[in-house]
Amino acid sequence: MESGMQKLVVVSNRLPAALKKEQGRWTVNPGSGGLVTAMAPVLKNRGGTWIGWSGASDPDVDVDSLLADFSKEAGYELCTVPLTKEEVDGYYFGFSNEIIWPLFHDLQTRCRFYPKYWRAYLDVNFKFAEVVARKSDQDDYIWIQDYHLMHQAFFLKSMGVKRNIGFFLHIPFPTPDIFMKLPWRWKLIQALIEYDLVGFQTIQDRRNFVGCLQRLMPEARVEGRGAVVTVHAGNRQFRLGAFPISIDYNQFSDLAKRPDVARKAFELKEALRHRKIILGVDRLDYTKGIPERIRSIQTLLRRYPDLKGRMNFVQIAVPSREEVGEYKDLRTEIEQLVGRVNGEFSFPGWVPVHYHYRNLPYDELVAYYAAADIGLVTPLRDGMNLVAKEYCACNNSEDGVLVLSEFAGAAAQLQKHAYLVNPYDMDGIAKGIHRAFHWSKEERSLHMSKLREQVRKNNIFWWVDSFLQAGIAKTLGDFPEVETVHFEQV
Fold this sequence. Notes:
The chain has 490 residues and is an alpha/beta fold. It has helices spanning 34-43, 63-74, 85-104, 115-135, 152-158, 176-179, 185-192, 203-216, 249-257, 259-271, 290-303, 325-345, 362-371, 386-394, 411-414, 426-437, 441-457, 460-472; strands at 8-14, 17-22, 25-30, 49-53, 77-80, 141-145, 164-168, 197-200, 221-223, 228-233, 236-242, 276-283, 311-318, 353-357, 374-377, 401-405, 419-421.
């Protein structure tokens, strides 16, 4: 790549490839999730770099050579930040997931404010910043992803390293009265205002951040209107923006049209005797509201006995943080609830709730989306929730209904044509499902086509473009693919 040409450096807790020990050997598996989907096309063959932890804490593992082949195939450089087991425990399981995750999702009673977690968080953030400083040039644009790495700009500046650096928070930002419970609230705000651009999922998250900033720095002023505003705080000037993350719409829609996937979707409908399918898809996490959702199905069947035998609720729960006690308890609670509802309502030939606790292959998941008549997406709180968007993209027949939590970030974009519910209101969700069940074909089609259009227009590439435009007045197209074919000059 020509020197002086700007490249993109993405920094996240995990690399887009995970190292896993299988039968005594280390293997490299491509990562999954919205961020990988979003960033891989941006970096591929454009001279980009992705910095993160590999997922291995064994000092004897030669991570770099294991990842070299993956790098070659992916079309961008992967740089690892080596972390010990103690560092992962303190910074990732501790501060990130026992403090920031519950606090920012309005579940502060689940927080464990241990000072040792905070120290580990700072140590690991400093470690990351050292790698970022070494692996990037002054011309590069550094894009930091998510709550694990909020101190990157702060540490780079403390080292005297000048970089244009943006940060995007994938989870919600809490209101001031919740944020102020954090013992290190001032230090965190100080770290975030060192970025040139801080991005949030919604305008509401941005508003919450400004509220917290002004509590701690009453002199902070906000200028401008629209998606991106400028903040003056002390001697700092930086920008804040709302950039709702999205999906690769065409990838999902096209996959749902593929003959083998369409056949799978038809087989699912056949297996359930063409009853209406209500679908929930979530990572197993207490923010997703799965127990509340199952209780809502119980309420639905109690209140509307006419639906017995005419619908099936399918809940797919993707395993997550299985070694953490709270998640084990959650899994047990869900399994017991499923048993209780099925015990109460089943009759020969019909079991109301089908619960799958496993990772589904991509094409199978898309078949479920395509087969479902109602997408039931009811997190207690969510930064965005891409399941809502994936469900719409796969609904090529435009015959589905999206029942969506008002506390998901996606509600800000999709509220006009989704059926919004309060995830804590079992009666309200039951009523919403019953109403959606009886919508006419025209009504379903009108709303679903509008939802699909919204997701198609504001897709993942639009998200990347809008962030880069705000950060460095560039778009994805300004990072051209590097020519891989070289002709020798005669």
